[in-house]
Specification:
Elements (H helix, E strand, L loop, with lengths): L14 E5 L4 H11 L4 E6 L5 H4 L4 E4 L4 H11 L3 E5 L14 H4 L2 H8 L3 H14 L3 E3 L1 H4 L8 E2 L7 H17 L7 E5 L2 E5 L5 H13 L11 E4 L13 E2 L1 H10 L3 E5 L4 E2 L2 H11 L2 E5 L10
Parallel strand pairs: 1-2, 1-4, 2-3, 4-5, 9-11, 10-12, 11-13
Antiparallel strand pairs: 6-13, 7-8, 7-9
């Protein structure tokens, strides 16, 4: 563990941040400490980026070590916890468990028999039953969410707006099946639905289909639409975008990205807006209320 100088916590105790991959864990830690609250980072081995942990007190942890998490949380006085960053769904068969996790295996087996929201909601209940409070990253660091409106200079066309609305309808329709949080729609035609591969690989699939001339829509037509599942627990696994999403949009030759404002986390909004403007694509945050309107 690395421990720099003590930080104020506003009387709430340090915030525990369980960190997956990407830059979002660092963004959350920076925002929370700027508000005067101390943080302790719990970096997941095999996922978290060591550079993102620099400058903050942190522990390196395995996924199957619930007893160690619980002990360290209590040792540091952490009541509140945030989960943030990318993690590939683990295999129980190839995981190493401590004793506390072994005691949970029957419950874990039931949680794994379903989609990601079913699994993650079950995991949150375990933490809560042990007296911890799980908070959403958007609750402790609202500035990391996409704002309403267009991030850059480009705006969706009327055709794009229709594709966005169709995409939102598709996500709402598949939500009860706990499938995915993203779709690609072009000319009212659903080209792809996000599966276990994630958004970036879905965009690679669209790019490959373009190269194989299996997509009839011309280049520059089509929208990536991302939104939480209708009944998803908003405290964990919110949709996210970052500069790499713009790269995927460009490779897939789409017109832009539409996400739900306040319910989508963004890695480095300024870089995303700059990259979108350079590429000539739009990034738009949709109103969370009703999700029907598309800003003009």
């Amino acid at each position: 563990m690395t421990m720099p100088g003590a930080q104020a916590d506003g009387g709430e105790g340090p915030l525990a941040i369980i960190c997956g991959g990407g830059s979002l864990p660092h963004a959350v830690a920076k925002a929370v400490t700027a508000r005067g609250r101390a943080v302790i980072l719990f970096a997941l081995r095999g996922f978290a980026d060591p550079e993102q942990m620099a400058g903050y007190p942190h522990h390196w942890m395995g996924l199957g070590k619930y007893g160690a998490y619980r002990r360290l949380f209590r040792q540091h006085g952490c009541r509140d916890v945030v989960f943030i960053g990318s993690v590939i769904r683990p295999s129980l068969r190839h995981s190493e468990f401590d004793w506390a996790t072994l005691m949970l295996v029957p419950r874990l087996l039931a949680m794994f028999r379903g989609g990601d929201d079913h699994l993650l909601s079950g995991l949150l209940r375990i933490w809560e039953q042990d007296g911890f409070r799980v908070l959403g990253a958007h609750e402790v660091a609202p500035e990391i969410t996409v704002p309403e409106g267009c991030l850059g200079c480009f705006k969706p066309s009327e055709r794009d707006r229709r594709d966005i609305l169709r995409g939102m309808e598709v996500i709402a329709a598949i939500g009860p099946f706990d499938v995915g949080q993203a779709v690609v729609v072009a000319n009212n035609h659903v080209l792809a639905v996000e599966g276990i591969e994630g958004t970036d690989q879905m965009l690679v699939r669209i790019a490959d289909l373009r190269k194989a001339k299996k997509i009839r829509a011309p280049d520059g037509i089509g929208v990536l639409v991302k939104a939480p599942k209708p009944h998803q627990d908003r405290r964990i696994d919110l949709p996210s975008i970052g500069p790499q999403t713009i790269d995927g949009i460009v490779a897939a030759r789409l017109a832009g990205i539409a996400v739900v404002a306040g319910e989508t986390v963004i890695a480095d909004a300024a870089r995303v807006a700059e990259a979108a403007d350079r590429a000539g694509v739009f990034v738009v945050g949709l109103p969370a209320s009703g999700r029907r309107g598309v800003p003009t």
